[in-house]
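ARCHIVE CARD
Drawer: 12
Card no.: 0347
Subject: one protein chain, sequence and derived structure
Cross-reference: see card 0346
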Amino acid sequence: MKSRIFLLALIYLIGIRVSFAQKDKKEQQTDPDSSGVVTDRFLPTSAPMLLFEDLNKTDKKKEKKKKAKKNIYFGVKTKKGYTKQNIRESVQYEVFNYTTETRTVDPYIRDIYWIDNRDKVIRSQNFDPARGFLLHGPYQREVGEVVVEKGYYFFGTKHGTWLKFDNKSVLLDKLHYSEGWPKDSKVTYYNREKRQIEKLIPVEYELMEGNFFHFHEDGQVAVTGEYHFGEKVGLWTEYWNVKNSAVRKREIQYQSEPFTKNFRPYIRAEWDKDGNLIYRRENVN
């Protein structure tokens, strides 16, 4: 009798332990702050081997390649496509090329352009290879019969010279890109010869625009955030210097839109070096 009671009690305690373990696991899955360890495969954990000068030197070679054979751009075979959309009393066409080749999305570039085959639209965020393909090669946008924008894509990123025109074909805008990075962007180094990057600062029209990255001296990511019209926007994240891993240290919430009045940035959450949550601000309106 006693052994039976002991066995039932043991089963009950095991059941409670499993129940709590399942509850803890469920809470970790539903609570994004439960762990500071970042598992996003697109998050960079080290600085890129990047020199804008080196990228500039390859432009002419790529231009020659794209002219060599029909529908082959930057050495990659592409296919043509187009979208059609009614805008007020005009019809807008987007004529583009795309590649079926798979390529890992660059985590440093904010805007990755791809054709969504399901909805028949071009998107610049959340690339899903199961739904579409990266734009690659020439792109042209027409309203009515007037070209209002044209340029080239390189695996989903703007590359080379991009032009915008008004409805009378008058040039309004001219920008230069190098595989997604505006040519005016700035790179600072701990050691230039060894390509030890300190900061990647995106710049357009002399204003900071796009994804910002700061790295520790050993190449581990230190800070990520976004600028819009020269203003910090969204969630900025600081990281501990942990080898081969990205562990959040602090998240600071900035305005969601630039030039938002009466908004004061605040610390949203903090973690220790092991990824354990040590602070979180609750009930923020």
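Annotation on reverse: The two ends are 59 Å apart (CA to CA). Confidence is low (pLDDT under 50) at residues 6-14, 18-25.
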